[in-house]
TrEMBL record:
Pfam families: WxL. Residues 591-616 are annotated as: Disordered. Residues 576-791 form the WxL domain. InterPro entries: WxL_dom. This is WxL domain-containing protein. It comes from the Bacteria.
Length: 794
């Protein structure tokens, strides 16, 4: 058997249809297709033909599928696919077949792979001078992949009048790994070996990528025409062996690029090489497109040294070294483009794609900035927008319905400490955003001034976002920031009545499941199960019910947020533009029973107004608090009168008086002595002289009278004894015993109060008899309160 007889079969036609599945692993070529109008047709959805051969047939007698008659046709159509893996022979070969055609149409796919081909043994080869007028069509959403992994042969080789059309949103991916040595006349992606070659892209969405590692992308030193039409994308990367070599080689070449979506042509030769090697009568015609250029030896990963926005121009001359005409002679001229023309550049590119807004961060009410990201399509890939490349209009719709617009441009920036990225846009605001504010991207415009490409609504890929409430609740308020070691309860106040309350004792969580917040925002924290020591810390945390920030789309939310909501941090925590206030901490002090408590609710510590100065060394038997009696201003009367002291008032943490918080005047006594040291005690008071004014005038016969005497405690036990059950009269300069306790009574903390919530303003009286003749002056006196330990037998 000779070389041309190694075919598995020789036929006039080969058909695979109606979802057929054909797979062949061969040591020979598959088919010799001969005769009148020979056809290889693979058609219909899910029809697949897959061929793998180890044949090493070369030259005109190689090829996995070989056709040697005029008007031969290989057709892959209507969703079918053809895959040929032929490491050392051509995948498709036309031998002296005039007007032959390859057609991949209607969503079909062709994959052709070779590993080691040299000389003219291209992966797709139209052989012989008679093989003129050959045509390769890829149309209607179809895909062709041609890869020549190794060897000096081109990936596709045409003879005279060869034509390659990619259209109708189709894709061509071509790669030639070459033989490892740069060559201006080998290792091509496509070779037009004779004149009349055409390479044409048309149809919005059509995309071509040709990469030749060691040779031209398209070449052949013949006349050719290359058209890159509206809405198409064309990437061509090659490498010349010399600085004067190029990735597009042709004699008389006409290159037209008309409003493409994207093109990018690179000569990767170190220190640069030409894009085009053409004769002087050639024409390069760019229409309605941006245009960027990188000088020889430039770093292609950086932005272009030169850029023109939406320009038309024509170049001519050897290697396109002369400007023939330009739509903007002020910006594109010999001075700006350079006297060497295209030969000064190793990369040229244009991207007329619309900007795509692909990210809008969900902001929080801890933010003074709105961030997002913009990408620019480059063929089927995307890159981040360059600094200043895209301008955006952002709308903020407030909860009130008021709308405001802001402008932003893309830049290289960090979003709240993340790594810097290109394509970031930021709207900086003077104030924090508010919960419920809605953020929208209204428009994006890629260009400079009024010249550019506006994005369409479909290019804004993100929806509007709402500001998420991330700031934790205002920390709990307590009357004081200290508590005694013996405290069993503490009352707090919260603004947000929906909060969950948790607490720690020296960093250890303790049970707060029974804590509830009333309608006024008050709650009681039970400390009775804790053993408190001096300098211990009770920290009380509030968590709202705003929900998960992560689920709402917030990137990298703070640790204070979980599925329920936001909690006060244990210490200052900065998130974005706000430092969260830490949870309130109560410090345990060795004050024992010395902190005043509420005379109406002795379980709660309070801060009363006008606290008296008390000895600090009272020990375990102590007076903790005594109200000062203020009878306010009264009208002068010639008749006997009883004036009543104002009720006791309480203070807020900041020292201001709590409105509508009046308490009975009271005295607080604590007996914390151990049982074996305890004896009785008595409380007495002495009025140090009669009421008098600064002129020495006295209210003769007046006396302080204590009504509605009551004893209450938070600890239980036996109450001390009132010495006068109904009314106590305090006579000036006379010691008056008020309370008496024995060893079994009066233990713990007791409140000796005058009245209750209803009678607080009518329980401490100043009786002034007729004839006292008061003057219009301020009258005062002082009282000495004495708490004495009394032996048991006394």
């Amino acid at each position: 058997m000779n070389a041309r007889d190694d075919a598995v079969f020789r036929v006039n036609n080969f058909f695979a249809r109606n979802g057929s599945k054909v797979r062949m692993d061969l040591q020979a070529k598959l088919a010799q297709i001969s005769g009148v109008l020979p056809v290889v047709q693979i058609t219909d959805e899910d029809t697949t033909v897959s061929i793998n051969t180890t044949s090493t047939s070369s030259g005109r007698y190689g090829g996995v599928i070989r056709l040697d008659s005029n008007e031969s046709l290989i057709e892959v159509n209507n969703g079918a696919s053809l895959k040929i893996e032929a490491p050392q022979t051509s995948a498709l070969l036309y031998d002296t077949a005039t007007n032959s055609r390859i057609l991949v149409d209607n969503g079909s796919k062709m994959e052709l792979y070779s590993s080691l081909l040299n000389g003219n043994d291209a992966t797709v080869r139209f052989y012989g001078a008679a093989s003129r007028g050959s045509r390769f069509d890829i149309d209607n959403n179809s895909t062709v992949i041609i890869e020549a992994e190794e060897g000096a042969a081109p990936a596709v080789r045409f003879r005279a009048d060869g034509q390659f059309f990619v259209k109708g949103n189709s894709k061509l991916q071509m790669y030639n790994g070459g033989n490892g040595s740069p060559n201006n006349s080998a290792n091509q992606g496509i070779e037009f070996a004779n004149d009349g070659g055409v390479f044409d892209l048309s149809g919005v969405g059509t995309e071509v990528n040709i990469v030749s590692d060691f040779g031209p992308a398209i070449g052949g030193n013949s006349s050719m025409e290359i058209n890159v039409r509206e809405g198409t994308s064309f990437t061509a990367i090659g490498r010349s062996s010399t600085a004067s070599g190029a990735i597009f080689n042709g004699s008389i070449s006409n290159i037209t690029i008309d409003n493409p979506l994207f093109f990018d042509f690179k000569n990767t030769r170190p220190n640069g090489g030409n894009i085009y090697s053409v004769s002087a009568s050639s024409i390069f015609d760019l229409k309605n497109s941006n245009f960027a250029a990188w000088a020889n030896g430039s770093n292609f990963d950086l932005e272009a040294e030169k850029y023109w926005n939406m320009i038309d121009f024509e170049l001519t001359g050897s290697n396109f070294n002369t400007i023939r005409k330009t739509s903007d002679p002020e910006s594109f001229n010999t001075s700006t483009f350079g006297p060497a023309g295209m030969t000064a550049y190793s990369r040229i590119s244009a991207n007329n794609a619309r900007a795509v807004v692909d990210e809008l961060r969900v902001p929080t009410n801890a933010d003074k900035s709105i961030f997002g990201h913009v990408s620019i399509p480059e063929g089927s890939d995307y890159r981040s927008a360059f600094e200043g490349e895209v301008e955006l209009e952002i709308e903020i719709e407030r909860l009130t319905g008021e709308k405001e617009t802001h402008r932003a441009v893309t830049k290289v920036d960090s979003i709240y400490g993340e790594a810097d990225r290109e394509g970031i846009f930021e709207v900086k605001l003077p104030d924090l955003l508010n919960e419920g504010d809605r953020i929208s991207v209204l428009s994006a415009f890629r260009g400079v001034g009024e010249v550019g490409v506006p994005s369409l609504p479909d290019d804004i890929k993100i929806d509007s976002v709402d500001v998420f409430p991330i700031i934790p609740p205002k920390p709990v308020e307590f009357p004081l920031n200290t508590i005694g070691k013996t405290a069993t309860h503490v009352q707090g106040y919260v603004e947000n009545k929906e909060v969950e309350i948790t607490a720690t004792h020296n960093g250890q969580i303790f049970d707060t499941s029974d804590v509830t917040v009333d309608d006024e925002g008050n709650f009681i924290l039970n400390l009775s199960d804790l053993t408190l020591k001096e300098d211990d810390e009770i920290q009380v945390f509030l968590r709202d019910a705003e929900g998960s920030a992560e689920a709402a789309g917030v990137i990298n939310p703070p640790e204070t947020n979980n599925a329920r909501g936001n909690i006060n941090p244990a210490a200052d925590l900065t998130f974005h533009d706000v430092t969260f206030e830490p949870a309130t901490t109560l410090i345990v002090e060795d004050v024992g029973p010395f902190s005043p408590v509420d005379p109406l609710d002795p379980e709660l510590e309070v801060e009363p107004e006008n606290k008296p100065e008390l000895p600090e060394d009272q020990g375990q038997l102590s007076i903790d608090f005594i109200s000062s009696f203020n009878f306010s201003s009264q009208a002068i009367s010639v008749h006997e009168q009883t004036y009543y002291a104002q009720p006791q008032r309480l203070l807020n943490e900041d020292g201001t008086v709590k409105e509508n918080e009046e308490r009975p005047n009271y005295v607080q006594i604590s007996d914390r002595r151990p049982d074996n040291e305890r004896s009785g005690w008595q409380l007495s008071v002495t009025q140090n002289g009669q009421f008098s004014n600064q002129n020495g005038h006295e209210l003769i016969g007046s006396e302080i009278q204590l009504f509605n005497q009551e004893l209450v405690t938070a600890q239980g036990g036996t109450a001390p004894t009132l010495q006068e059950e109904t009314i106590q009269r305090i006579i000036p300069n006379t010691k008056k015993i008020l309370l008496q306790a024995d060893c079994a009574s009066g233990t713990g903390t007791w409140i000796y109060r005058f009245g209750d919530a209803e009678t607080a303003d009518k329980s401490v009286g100043l009786y002034v008899p007729k004839g006292a003749n008061p003057e219009a002056e301020k009258y005062t006196t002082s009282l000495t309160w004495e708490l004495s330990s009394v032996p048991e037998n006394q």
